[in-house]
From TrEMBL:
This is cyclic-guanylate-specific phosphodiesterase. The keyword Transmembrane applies. Residues 358-491 form the GGDEF domain. The keyword Transmembrane helix applies. The chain crosses the membrane at residues 281-303. One of its GO terms (molecular function) is cyclic-guanylate-specific phosphodiesterase activity. PROSITE patterns: EAL, GGDEF. Residues 500-753 form the EAL domain. The lineage of its organism: Bacteria, Pseudomonadati, Pseudomonadota, Gammaproteobacteria, Oceanospirillales. Its EC number is 3.1.4.52.
Length: 756
């Protein structure tokens, strides 16, 4: 019974599909054919109209040829002067005729259509006659026209057929009327042209409007007194433009001649002739449409059967696709954890269903130094590390808790609780402890740490948006306090976050407007007490907040990526200044601090080479100061970058020595020419015994490795003397000079040069 029902359903679906295809095809075909019919029909009418316009222009030219013959005859000087002499009584009529007739016959014979000529004197009396001349009625009609017209045209039915009359004035050079010519032209050549122009199913008519006489190749003799109002219902005596009349069996186009508006050309077409091409064009689309409809029904019957059999499979695949889409929308593809959207919905649901005693903590985790590891080991290794971190964090997720990947190297952990906030602190400590164990990545141990920002419900916020925002704010504060820890959200952090945002925006503007400044602090040789180098230090004179120290914006620039344009600007300006000093005769080494993020960029070495080339500074006068953290986090990559920089001839120095890893093995392998002792070890000299021993040890180690040492933060003469006794090479600090502008440094160098 089930199989029978399924077969019946399939048959009904097939019938419905076939009927739908037929109906849809007929509708589409009808609309297409109707549109095509209108387009082709309009094209046929446009072609016919264009033909009428062309014929009208040709007729104008034919009539203008008659007019030109009349002008030439009337303008002949000798016969005009003879007529003037006759008018003045100086020549007899016989002499005039004898003189004029031979000279008039020449142009008349040149025109194949000229039938005859009648010349009158200035009083309108006949003086010369040759050939066929118009009857007196036609003469009177032409002579009655205003004398101001140079040429007067008319139409007459002569014995030999329809004729064209032209009355042409004869005037002397002063414009006085001497006489008038009446010239009669036959229209046989025009009728022949009309006959040649007529196509099958088309009839051409030339109508003389003043008398409504019609001339046509198919209707001879002419039909007089044609009633255009009956044949052309829409004609209202128009003398300009092309017009069309349409009835059941014909289409008529008519247009008055432009140069001879008394004449109108009428072209009459039968529907069968005019639109024959339309039906030929439409026949093929109609046949193709019918074939396509038949083929569509056949294909439907062949295709729908197996398709219907696969409906159940398609349904299953659709369910699987929906599940995959749900997975993509709500889960992170890399780690398999819920994504930010799912955690947001979970948080929103928890808040709506929260009981009075229920609390929640939202912990925002950010992996420390992940970007450096990702850039050093490659993105594939970074992805694998994120999977390992996600797997380790899953171990801390309870039944009511939620873990999600927010994006990049950030995770979110939702922790419901009912007790005191100390429970949240204990969870944070457990999460930090989970990162103490190294991660096994491609056969090597990778140490990771994390920083947490925590916001609490309902203490800090009662909406998902505010909880997320406050957790992010707390995370930023935790990073500012040294990473590898956690920080609960406090109300004053929002103000700090706003200030941080404003500071970042102002820093971008300062970079665009180049309102930052570079100060230089001299580095002095302890043996000669001469300036041997300077350290470039960036300063930010804010228009509203005054001078902002570097420790407030350098870290911010490293986080948001502004360190790259900022570092490039400092490097270029410092090299420009040092190159100028070098040209002035001051061979000073300029030291520029370089961020680890700058060094991790593959294009950094080529950037340094380009700056040296453009500024013209010899490479040996540029020193780049590097941090211990960068050198020893990824020693292999660091050594490769430093080797390329040394190949350029650039000097390298290890900055703030003693505050980081301080691995003697790495120092020996890197072979850096210079290291700088951090100011924290100098401030206790010479009284602090531990600082004295530590500085002595660093100097002895540097001497054994062939490295020169620069002591930072020397503020007293006792500190300088102690360093000299310990055989330190160079120092810098407030004792000799504070950081000063480029102009102040140049003034100092000039004074020292004058003393020398």
């Amino acid at each position: 019974m089930r199989k029978l029902t399924t077969d019946l359903l399939r048959q009904r679906i097939l019938r419905f599909a076939a009927f739908s295809i037929l109906l849809t095809g007929l509708l589409v075909a009808s609309a297409t054919v109707f549109s095509l019919y209108r387009e082709v029909r309009g094209h046929s009418e446009q072609q016919a109209a264009a033909r009428v316009l062309s014929q009208m222009q040709t007729l104008d030219q034919l009539f203008s040829r008659f007019d030109e013959v009349a002008r030439q005859i009337s303008s002949r000087t000798q016969i005009r002067e003879a007529l003037s002499a006759f008018n003045q009584g100086e020549m007899t009529l016989e002499a005039l005729q004898t003189f004029t007739l031979p000279r008039l016959m020449e142009p008349l014979r040149a025109s194949e259509d000229a039938l005859g000529l009648l010349r009158m004197d200035q009083l309108g009396q006949e003086v010369v006659r040759t050939g066929e001349v118009p009857p007196e009625a036609a003469q009177r009609a032409l002579l009655a026209v205003d004398d101001a017209a140079t040429l007067v045209r008319g139409f007459w039915e002569a014995e030999t057929g329809p004729s064209y009359l032209v009355a042409s004035d004869i005037r002397d050079p002063e414009g006085r009327l001497v006489g008038r010519d009446l010239i009669l032209f036959g229209m046989q050549s025009l009728l022949q042209w009309l006959e040649a122009q007529s196509e099958s199913g088309e009839s051409l008519h030339l109508i003389y409007l003043p008398s409504m006489q019609r001339i046509s190749a198919q209707d001879l003799p002419p039909l007089l007194a044609l009633r255009l109002s009956e044949e052309l219902p829409n004609w209202r005596g128009q003398t300009q433009g092309l017009y069309k009349e349409t009835d059941l069996d014909r289409v008529v186009f008519y247009h008055t001649l432009q140069e001879h508006p008394d004449w109108m050309l009428l072209s009459q077409h039968s529907h069968s002739q005019l639109y024959a091409s339309t039906m030929k064009i439409l026949a093929w689309p109609l046949m193709v449409t019918l074939l396509l409809l038949a083929a569509g029904v056949l294909v439907t019957a062949l295709v729908m059967r197996p398709l219907l059999a696969r409906l159940s499979d398609a349904y299953l695949r659709q369910r699987e696709a929906e599940q995959q889409i749900h997975q993509l929308i709500n889960f992170d593809r890399l780690t398999g954890l819920p994504n930010w959207l799912q955690l947001y919905e979970r948080l929103h649901q928890k808040i709506e269903q929260a009981q009075p005693q229920e609390k929640m903590a939202l912990l925002f985790l950010n992996l420390d130094r992940f970007k450096a590891i990702n850039e050093s080991l490659g993105h594939q290794s970074g992805d694998q590390l994120l999977r390992l971190v996600a797997a380790r964090l899953r171990a801390f997720v309870g039944q009511d808790e939620a873990l999600a990947r927010s994006g990049g190297d950030e995770f979110l952990f939702l922790y419901p609780y009912r007790g005191s906030d100390a429970q949240v602190e204990a969870v944070a400590q457990r999460l930090l402890a989970a990162f103490q164990m190294p991660f096994e990545l491609e056969g090597r141990e990778v140490h990771m740490a994390t920083t947490l920002g925590i916001s609490l419900f309902p203490r800090d916020a009662r909406s998902p948006e505010d909880l997320l925002k406050h957790a992010d704010t707390a995370l930023i504060r935790a990073k500012e306090q040294g990473r590898k820890g956690f920080q609960f959200y406090q109300a004053d952090m929002s103000q700090s976050s706003r200030e941080r945002f404003e500071l970042e925006a102002d820093l971008r503007i300062a970079l665009e407007q180049q309102s930052l400044q570079i100060y230089y602090q001299p580095q002095v040789c302890l043996a000669s007490n001469q300036i041997v180098g300077v350290e470039a230090l960036i300063r930010w004179p804010h228009p509203e907040k005054g001078m902002i120290p570097p420790d407030r914006f350098i870290g911010l620039a490293e986080e948001n990526g502004l360190i790259h344009p900022l570092g490039a600007w400092v490097l270029r300006r410092a090299c420009e200044d040092a190159a100028r000093w070098y040209q002035q005769g001051y061979a000073l080494r300029v030291s520029v601090n370089v961020s680890a993020r700058q060094l991790n960029r593959s294009a950094f070495v080529s950037q340094v080479a380009e700056v040296l080339q453009k500024t013209g500074l010899p490479a040996k006068y540029l020193e780049l100061e590097l941090t211990e953290t960068y050198l020893f986090e990824n020693f292999t990559r660091s050594a490769r970058v430093l080797r390329r920089l040394q190949q350029l001839g650039v000097s390298l120095a290890l900055d703030d020595f003693g505050t980081g890893y301080s691995s003697l093995n790495y120092l020996r392998r890197l072979r850096l020419p210079r290291l700088k002792i951090d100011r924290s070890f100098i401030s206790g000299l010479p009284e602090n015994r531990e600082d004295l021993v530590l500085v002595s040890t660093i100097l002895a180690m540097a001497q054994s490795l062939g490295m020169k040492v620069v002591a930072e933060g020397v503020e007293t003469d006792a500190q300088r003397q102690c360093l000299a006794d310990l055989q330190c090479h160079e120092y810098q600090g407030y004792f000799y000079a504070r950081p000063e502008t480029c102009a102040e440094l140049e003034a100092r160098l000039m004074r020292l040069s004058e003393r020398a």
